[in-house]
Amino acid sequence: MQVSIRELKAHLSKYISQAQAGQGFEITSHRKVVARVIGVPTASDSGVARLLACGAATWTGGKPAGASLCLSAKGTAVSQMVMEDRG
Questions:
Q1: Can you state the percent helix, strand and coil of the chain, rounding each to 5?
Q2: Which domain holds residue 37?
Q3: Does the residue 81 lie in any domain?
Q4: Is residue 32 part of a domain?
Q5: Residue 87 lies in a domain
Q6: How many domains is the chain partitioned into structurally?
Q7: Cα dihedral 52→58→60→61 (10° resolution)
Q8: E-assigned strands of 1-87?
Q9: Does the model's pTM come out above 0.90?
Q10: Which of 34, 38, 47, 82 could be disulfide-bonded to 24 (CB atoms 3.0-4.6 Å)?
Q11: What pLDDT digit, counting tens, does each position of 32-43 carry?
């Protein structure tokens, strides 16, 4: 849907409500598209919420278990490399 700037200014609340409902529109000036307006999804529409809702993921409510990642003290320390680069 295309809306002129004048029409948008005259009925701003109507078009904002439509954007919140998920209907995007384009704003025109002299019959040329100058902007697109889309609504911002609510927090409940997050990717994780969608995965949980469709059953693609599960969560028991606890904290996620960390990866068993062990860093070794081999090699040069990053702070030492920075000091060497600075000269």
A1: 40, 15, 45
A2: 1-54
A3: no
A4: yes
A5: no
A6: 1
A7: -40
A8: 2-4, 25-29, 32-37
A9: no
A10: 38
A11: 999 999 888 666
